[in-house]
Specification:
alpha/beta, about 30% helix, nine-stranded mixed beta sheet, two-stranded antiparallel sheet, 2 domains, Alkaline Phosphatase, subunit A, about 475 residues, 10 helices
């Protein structure tokens, strides 16, 4: 092999520069090969998992505002004894957005009962969900760092209290791709459009290419607006229009190759065109039987909105959508600083039957084994009262549950202290929850890496551990 000796200092620097560039390119290509990634996530096939997994898709039921764990899944008899008293000196006060919080203790007014073969405790606010406890892993020892709704919701979605990082759904899409080229891989549905705190930042792709971000569907009216081709337009003309728009977009992009938002917009047009053939069928609830609609509570005013969203989630995962996130209580409606009895009674009635219907329907169709269902909010509530009949935020200890793909149901994991203030046993930080969720769908959170500005980024920010007790 003949060595080419540079003829000038400029040639030497140019050759060396190309060499360093090729090293970077090789690293990126190797990363793509290891993860099985395709440059276009909307057209890729299923990527290989890091390890065998039962779960192929995820439905995250996000109760926005912070449901009260000590009124739903974590009974505290000690609160009855301490009712109206100040926080005992043995308990460390918590910090809330208003500062240190140490109001009188307030017991739960709920009636509690053990359910199923597992004897899992559930309050009378969730009678329908209680019938499914043998499929649930109830995690009573969750904790995070969010003091208010904005940073709490941000952390539960992205792992960080600060915006700018990819959401969990984006990481799953990045790692596993899509099973259906004609539908988005990551879908978000609010129960009240545009009201959820932080908005699209919750399903943002952060520093990843924008093509990995979530696609928001509408809960009011048509889930996907302007999807149908105008009546006078023939398929041939529609295809010609699409090709012309694509050509113009590509010409515009030629000098703007680093703009991932522009690339994502181009891909969204391509996906929208493919969706015109399949999405109308996927979102058409009229195809469902009357008994199925009743199962989800779509026949009743209180449960109709979230019932439709839960049924939509089932239809989407049935057709290969990888990650579906449903927001209930959009606009922090679970935030019960006062009047918790009225607040939670209404929200539980609106969500309990649809969630139970979703679990029943998934199980009847053989989909629960391959679908990981997650329930929870950004934090829980305090055992101390606020304004006499409400509860403040509590990120130091709260409850979430998981069911379905790869989860060992019929168990309660961890605990809070005797008044429900702090997680004390088997404490699971948000990073631990995310690591476990990724593990259940076949991704090792240490191996799921995205290179950003020369730094290897991970969904769990180089923290987190898998909770093996959850695994079947």
């Amino acid at each position: 092999m003949d060595l080419q000796i540079p003829s000038s200092r400029r040639s030497m620097l140019q050759d060396a520069g190309f060499g360093f560039g090729l090293l970077a390119l090789q690293a990126l290509l190797c990363q793509n090969r290891v993860l099985g990634l395709d440059p276009d996530p909307t057209k890729s096939t299923t990527h290989k998992t890091h390890h065998p997994a039962k779960a192929k898709s995820i439905i995250f039921l996000f109760m926005e505002g912070g449901p009260s764990h000590i009124d739903l899944f974590d009974p505290k008899p000690r609160l009855e004894q301490l009712a109206g008293q100040p926080l005992p000196p043995s308990f460390k006060p918590i910090i809330t957005p208003m500062g240190e919080y140490n109001a009188p203790l307030m017991p739960s007014k709920r009636a509690w009962k053990q359910h199923g073969n597992s004897g899992t405790w559930v309050s009378d606010w969730l009678p329908h969900t209680a019938q499914h406890v043998d499929d649930l892993a109830v995690i009573r020892s969750c904790w995070g760092n969010g003091l208010n709704h904005s940073n709490g919701v941000c952390q539960m979605n992205s792992g960080s209290t600060l915006g700018g990082r990819p959401s969990l759904g984006s990481w799953v899409t990045y790692g596993l791709g899509t099973e259906n080229e004609s539908l988005p891989a990551f879908v978000v549905i609010e129960d009240d459009d545009g009201k959820v705190i932080n908005g699209p930042r919750n399903w943002s792709a952060g520093f990843m290419p924008a093509a990995y971000q979530g696609t928001a569907l509408h809960s009011n009216g048509d889930p996907i607006r302007h999807l149908s081709t105008p009546t006078p337009t023939s398929p041939q003309r529609q295809d010609s229009k699409r090709k012309l728009i694509d050509a113009l977009n590509r010409k515009h992009q030629a000098s703007r190759s680093i703009d991932s938002e522009l690339e994502a917009r181009i891909r969204s047009y391509e996906l929208a065109y493919r969706m015109q053939s399949q999405a109308p069928e996927a979102i058409d609830l009229a195809q469902e039987s009357h008994s199925t609609l009743q199962l989800y509570g779509i026949d009743e005013k209180e449960t109709s909105v979230f019932g439709r969203n839960c049924l939509m989630a089932r239809r989407l995962v049935e057709r290969g959508v990888r990650f579906v996130q449903l927001y209930h209580g959009s606009g922090s409606r679970w935030d019960a600083h006062s009047g918790i009895e009225k607040n939670h009674s209404s929200l539980c009635r609106a969500s309990d039957r649809p969630i139970a219907g979703l679990l029943t329907d998934l199980k009847q169709r053989g989909l629960l084994d391959s679908t990981l269902v997650i329930w929870g909010g950004e934090f829980g509530r305090t055992p101390m009262s606020e304004k006499g009949d409400g509860r403040d935020h509590n990120s130091n200890g709260f409850t979430m549950w998981m069911a379905g793909g790869g989860v060992r149901g019929g168990q309660t994991i961890g605990s809070t202290d005797e008044i429900g203030l702090h997680a004390v046993e088997d404490r699971l930080h948000v990073h631990d929850l995310h690591a476990t969720i990724l593990h259940l769908i076949g991704l090792n959170h240490w191996d799921l890496v995205y290179s950003h500005q020369g730094r290897p980024e991970r969904a769990t920010q180089n923290e987190g551990r898998v909770c093996t007790k959850i695994l079947a």
